[in-house]
Amino acid sequence: MFEAQASFPALEPDAFDEPTQERLAVRSPSQHPPRFLLLYGSLRGR
Predict the structure, then answer these.
(1) CA atoms of 22 and 5, how far apart (whole Å)
(2) Which of 2, 12, 35, 42 is the most buried (most CB within 10 A)?
(3) Per-residue pLDDT tens for 10-38?
């Protein structure tokens, strides 16, 4: 085990869940139009 694995347990190879084509496939098409979120401006004080 190298040093990064000792301090980051998520780097353990057994913890990775590799995606497959079957899991990425669309199971049923969406029934609504596409939705987009647009963020404009800034919340910081001026």
Answers:
(1) 30
(2) 12
(3) 677 777 788 899 999 988 888 989 888 88
Counting every residue written for the chain, the total comes to 46
* CA Rg value for the chain: 20
Question: Rounded to whole angstroms, what are the CA distances from 19 to 9, 35, 45?
Answer: 20, 25, 42
Coil/strand/helix, residue 22: helix
State how far the Cα of 11 lies from the Cα of 15, in Å rounded to an integer.
7
Sign for the CA dihedral angle at 29, 31, 34, 40 comes to negative
**Which pair of structure tokens corresponds to residue 41?**
């401006």
